[in-house]
Sequence to fold (333 residues):
Amino acid sequence: MKLAVVILNWNGETLLERFLPNVVKHSPQATIYLADNASTDGSIAYVKTHFPDIHIIRNRENGGFAKGYNDALPFVDADVFCLLNSDVEVTPDWLVPVQKKLAENPRVAILQPKVLDLLKKDHFEYAGAGGGYIDQLGYPFCRGRVFQTLEKDRGQYDDDREIFWATGACMFIRKAVFDELRGFDGDYFAHQEEVDLCWRAKNRGYQVWYTAQSTVYHLGGSTLSNMNPKKTFLNFRNSLFSITKNLPRRKALPIIALRLILDGVAAARFVLQFRFRHFLAILRAHFSFYAQFGRMYKKREKETFLKNSPPVKSIVLSYFVYRKKHFTDLVKD
Fold:
């Protein structure tokens, strides 16, 4: 299978200088592409000078993560895309177990490696960790990361298993499936677009997997830190988008109503913490959702919906009330 590592970049010259040599060194099986979102710094000049064999795709605008990849991937010649953040440090032979898994099981459409924290290498990283899940209300969480609690890697997730969603920080996806799904939803701009993509893939019967045989280290926060109000806005709004699009109507509408109430509780919590910009971000997220609800509802693929039984009813209740901070406390394998 032809594998392409596609790195999305926007004014990330410093990150490319730090991480790109490592990707080139440890990815002899792949063709490497830089998908540039109309950068105005020296990113392209750096790559042309130091890595002339890397293919450069120039997007006309900075459409964010979702549209950026949608614009670039039609120009990538490969059977499998690896969508890799520019702030990821890969490891020797990181591609070998991924290729093996995809070759062995054609129903595995999307795959992610173990994602650890570059600054604290014995801990899982926020984006993806040991594989993504959602609860019955559509809140995403990971093995190794629940809300802001990051677990130490003690080998507790050293397995290969089917998950619900794979992280966009390092996601492998078959080109045929990406094309069938018509790519990411560009209306998300960034954050949780990978949850929506994986959800739509699973609704069509494809599998999403995690393999601990491959490990990468993610710096994280290089685009938007976890404490950035814009990230709060995108996460709250885009999660509502995904529920609207990917659940049967009889489930989606009651869950949306409950989520709006819980979002109000979260907004009140931000007020009590004097984090008023985050409070306003949730209000903006709701108004944006209301304005786009009709359009999102029309995107629903009514012919099929996943019969999903999330492992946790409410991650909010489990985490904040019952104080279950780790995946192993929530789910007994």
About this structure: The chain has a mean pLDDT of 94. The chain is about 40% helix and 20% strand. The chain has two domains: 3-218, 229-330. The longest helix spans residues 249-272.
